[in-house]
Task: inverse folding
C-alpha cells in the first residue's frame, strides 16, 4: 500500500484522515506544519503527499514549491470550499490534483490510487523512444529528453504528455483529458488541465507563449503537434 505523508494543521481533519487511511492499510506519517512536514519528508520517503493549503507559517503553496525544487513526488492538495484562488495557485505550484474538504476516506483513497496508477497505462501500447522534433519521449522508461537534456516532469505532467503524444493531431476536450489522465469520470474542474498544460509548456516548449508541441484550439481543447 502507498506510504502517505499528510500535512494538515486541523487536528480533527488530520486525525480523521490518518486513521481512515491506516484502516485501509496505508502507512501514514502526519505533520501539523509545513516545516515539520518537510522534515518528515526527508526521513519517511512517502509515495504521495497530501498537503493542506492553509497552513500556519509556511503555507501549502510554499511547501509545494519547495518540494518541486528537487522532487517529482505526487502531491494532492487539501482545500476548503471556496478557495478558488488558492486552488489555482496550488496547481500552478506543481500539485497533481486537489480534494475539497471535508472528504470521505474512500474518496481520498480513490484519488491517491488514481494519481499513483501506473503511467504505463497511458502509453498507448507504443514501445521504444518517439522523437517529436527536439523532444524524445521514452514510454517504456518514462523519460522525456529535450535537446539532449532530461526533463523532470511531475506525474500529472508526464501522464498528460504521454496521452497527448500517443494521438498526434487529435483534439481532446478538457473533460476528455480529465477522464483519461486524472480519471475524473464526473464533470471535473478544467483548471486541473489548464494548470498542468501551462506547467508542461514551461518545460517542453522553447517559447511557452507560442507553443509548438501542445496547441490550444479555442472552444475545443488541446492537441499535440509538433508544428
Result:
Amino acid at each position: 500500500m502507498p506510504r502517505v505523508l499528510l500535512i494538515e494543521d486541523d487536528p480533527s481533519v488530520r486525525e480523521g484522515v490518518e486513521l481512515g487511511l491506516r484502516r485501509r492499510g496505508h502507512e501514514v506519517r502526519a505533520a501539523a506544519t509545513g516545516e515539520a512536514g518537510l522534515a518528515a519528508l526527508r526521513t519517511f520517503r512517502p509515495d504521495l503527499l497530501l498537503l493542506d493549503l492553509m497552513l500556519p507559517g509556511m503555507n501549502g503553496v510554499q511547501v509545494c514549491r519547495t518540494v518541486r525544487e528537487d522532487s517529482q513526488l505526487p502531491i494532492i492538495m487539501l482545500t476548503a470550499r471556496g478557495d478558488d484562488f488558492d486552488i489555482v495557485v496550488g496547481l500552478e505550484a506543481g500539485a497533481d490534483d486537489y480534494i475539497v474538504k471535508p472528504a470521505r476516506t474512500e474518496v481520498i483513497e480513490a484519488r491517491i490510487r488514481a494519481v499513483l496508477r501506473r503511467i504505463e497505462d497511458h502509453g498507448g501500447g507504443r514501445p521504444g523512444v518517439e522523437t517529436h522534433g527536439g523532444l524524445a519521449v521514452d514510454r517504456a522508461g518514462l523519460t522525456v529528453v529535450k535537446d539532449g537534456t532530461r526533463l523532470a516532469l511531475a506525474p500529472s505532467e508526464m501522464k498528460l504528455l504521454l496521452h497527448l503524444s500517443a494521438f498526434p493531431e487529435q483534439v481532446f476536450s478538457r473533460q476528455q483529458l480529465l477522464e483519461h489522465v486524472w480519471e475524473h469520470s464526473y464533470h471535473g474542474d478544467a483548471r486541473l488541465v489548464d494548470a498542468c498544460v501551462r506547467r508542461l509548456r514551461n518545460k517542453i516548449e522553447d517559447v511557452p507563449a507560442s507553443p509548438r508541441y501542445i496547441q490550444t484550439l479555442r472552444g475545443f481543447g488541446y492537441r499535440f503537434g509538433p508544428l
